[in-house]
Each structure stands twice: as structure tokens, then as C-alpha cells.
Amino acid sequence: MYIKKINLFSKLFIIFNFFFISFPVFAHHPMGGNVPQNFFQGLISGLAHPIIGLDHLAFILSFGLIIMYSNTRLILALSFVLCSLIGVLLTIYNFALPFNEIFIALSVVFAGLIVMKGKKLNILTPVLLGILAGLFHGFAFGKAVIGAEQTPIISYLIGIAAIELLVILGTSYIISKVNFLSLKPRLSGVIFVGVGLILFIENIEKIIV
Q1: How confident is the model at residue 71, as a pLDDT?
Q2: pLDDT for 86-101, tens place per residue?
Q3: What is the C-alpha separation between 166 and 111, in angstroms, rounded?
Q4: Residue 118: burial class (beta carbons within 10 Å; 0-12, 13-18, 19+)
């Protein structure tokens, strides 16, 4: 039975690895690149933006696995969510975070390394990771609503907060209920590190070229 589970995750590893590598990294615009014009469009854009971008989704999933080992999951999840909302506002109000995409890629690598360790951390590490990553990921989210009116911006923020909490806490809860935890989260960490490195190299190439 155990061997069957190992084989299953070997197949899943290949499938997810293929998916992550082949997924368009530039798929960051749920409204086709258009600025949302009303409450509904802002909400849909906010719900979609954190999960259609490979870099953002990879980090959110890995962060969910990181806080799985903590007794303060909600606080840790909120540290990322709130800072990502601040990051959106930084973009809207024309503040600059240099090398944003590079730091986003590095956040995925670092989160993946933590998942690979498979250990419960003191609260300081995930809090700092959530704060810093939240600012950079949120800054990228904000580009989708530059020039939008107040109403779609508000609904956009609501959508982002809702989907981030759902994915982070949902991932943490579901995986924590799986019986063979010794393999699954750590294997996922390997995948996330690979994704982060690919994104990091691509962004470095853009700067060089």
C-alpha cells in the first residue's frame, strides 16, 4: 500500500512539474489586460489574479504548507494577506519596489526550501516571510488596477484577500489531514524551489538582455 502511494506521488510530481514549467508566466491579467470598470469586474479580477500567475500561486500554496506546522495559522496567513493589500496600494499611489519580479521569484524559492525541511518553525520566520513576500506580490497585483476608479479597486482588494485566505488556509488544512505527511509536503517543496528558480532565471535574463 505504501509503495502504491509513493508511485502515485512520483506521477503527480511529473504532472505538476510539467504543468508549472509549461504554464505561461505572463498570465497575470484576468481581465485581458483591461482595467476593471465596476465592482463585479474588480472582484473577479481580485479573485483570479493571485491564482492565475504561476509565481503568485506557487508562493501562496507553499506558504499554506509552511503554516501547516503552526498553531497560529490564521495570524500568519493574515500577515501575508494584509501586506499584499498594502503592496497593491503602494503601486496605486506610485511607490516603487525595485526588482519586484526577482524578489517574487526568490520568495517562491525560499518558501519551497522551508517546505522541504518539513519542520515547525518559530513564528518569526513565517511572519517575516509573509510580510516581505506580501509587499512584493501585492505590488505586482496593483498593476492590474492602475487608473481604476475607487469602487473596482475596493472590490479588487476584497477579492485578493478572500482568495488568498481561502487558498492558504485551505491548503494548510487539507494537507494536514493527509496521513502520509512525511513525503507530500517535502516533495511539494522540491517542486516550488524548481518553479522559483526557473522564474528567477527568466527575470535575470530579462535584465541582462
Answers
A1: 82
A2: 999 999 999 989 999 9
A3: 18
A4: middle
DSSP labels, the chain: -HHHHHHHHHHHHHHHHHHHHHS-TT---TTTTPPP-SHHHHHHHHHHHHHHSHHHHHHHHHHHHHGGG-S-HHHHHHHHHHHHHHHHHHHHTT---TTHHHHHHHHHHHHHHHHHHT-PPPTHHHHHHHHHHHHHHHHHHHGGGTT--HHHHHHHHHHHHHHHHHHHHHHHHHHHT-S-TTTHHHHHHHHHHHHHHHHHHHHHHHHH-
Q: Kindly report, residue by residue over 26-55, the tens digit of the pLDDT.
A: 445 555 668 999 999 999 999 999 999 889
| Alpha-carbon gap, residue 195 to 184, rounded angstroms | 17
Whose cell is 504548507? That residue is: 65
Percentage of the chain beyond pLDDT 70 is 79
pLDDT digits (tens, 9 = 90+) for 157-166: 999 999 999 9
Sequence-distant (≥ 6) Cβ neighbours of residue 182 within 8 angstroms: 118
Residue with cell 509549461: 22
Widest CA span of the chain, in angstroms? 56
Residues, the chain: 209
